[in-house]
Design goal:
With about 270 residues, the protein is an alpha+beta fold. It has helices at about 5-20, 40-55, 70-75, 90-95, 165-175, 185-195, 210, 215-220, 250-260, and strands at about 30, 35-40, 60-65, 80-90, 105-110, 115-120, 125-130, 135-140, 140-145, 155-160, 180, 200-205, 225, 240-245. The protein is globular.
């Protein structure tokens, strides 16, 4: 048995209230070996959540983004049937700079696939959640499949340019198939906003397990579609970096994949 979504939502809200919001835009930061930053807030949230999850679900390991690579690999190797995957602060650069777009992301992975996911946005008080085969919600309101009814050239896309290969970046700038482009800076929330229909197309060149484990499940349960640039089905359950191509509307997804398919695929 696993905790109910309502109990997990309450836990994320309590920890965000205590550990994130008081440190917003005033948290000390340091630079990790990969060049990304980590703040005391990342570490405080991870410590609290790991402790609570171990108490609630003894016997299920918790993998957090701010653990060492060696510890993450050990946890993956011995995970068995189930593993919690946690990003304690998705959008750390936004958080440290005072940009109010960041989240806590938590997923339960069972036999290599996400079966439960939550993404909490403490600034807007929105908690997105999903359970495999049972649907997706935001603050208790069901997220439903929808057709946008717009052609590709009139759509808004969220694109992370810096993780795409040079040829694709140039084509997206010189020959954009969409109307306009954004990049919000919290991957988990970007998946959720797509699931809620707040923009139309998504492209990201390199996500890690904790970036997509919860958000991709939420999009899937809302009726959206996702794959990789190489057109491989994106699934949770490994430590590799992978691209993401997605849309909520299946017709737009097909057009988006077709347009991107004209480019050299990633290795």
């Amino acid at each position: 048995m696993f905790p109910e979504i309502a109990a997990l939502e309450a836990l994320l809200k309590d920890i965000a209230r205590d550990e994130l919001l008081p440190r917003f835009a005033r948290s000390q930061r340091s630079v990790k070996p990969d060049g990304s930053i980590v703040t005391e807030a990342d570490l405080a949230v991870q410590e609290r959540l790991v402790g609570e999850l171990r108490r609630l679900t003894p016997g299920i390991d918790v993998l957090g983004e701010e653990m060492s690579r060696g510890e993450q690999e050990r946890l993956m190797a011995r995970a068995g049937a189930s593993l919690w995957c946690l990003d304690p602060l998705d959008g750390t650069s936004n958080f440290a700079a005072g940009i109010p777009f960041f989240s806590i992301s938590l997923a339960l992975i069972r036999e290599g696939r996400s079966v439960l996911g939550l993404v909490y946005d403490p600034v807007r008080g929105e908690c997105f959640s999903a359970r495999a085969g049972e649907g997706a919600w935001v603050n208790g309101e069901r997220l439903l499949p929808r057709r946008v009814g717009l052609p590709l050239p009139r759509c808004i896309a969220v694109v992370d340019f810096k993780r795409l290969d040079r040829a694709l970046r140039r084509r997206l700038v010189d020959e954009p198939p969409f109307s306009s482009q954004r990049n919000f800076g919290s991957t988990a929330l970007e998946w959720c906003w797509l699931a809620a229909g707040r923009y139309h197309l998504y492209l990201h060149g390199g996500q890690k397990l904790w970036d997509y484990a919860a958000g991709m499940l939420i999009l899937d349960e809302a009726g959206g579609r996702a794959t990789r640039l190489a057109r491989e089905v994106a699934v949770a359950g490994d430590m590799g970096v992978r691209s993401a191509v997605a849309a909520l509307d299946p017709d737009l997804f097909a057009q988006w994949v077709s347009w991107l398919g004209a480019m050299p695929l990633e290795g």
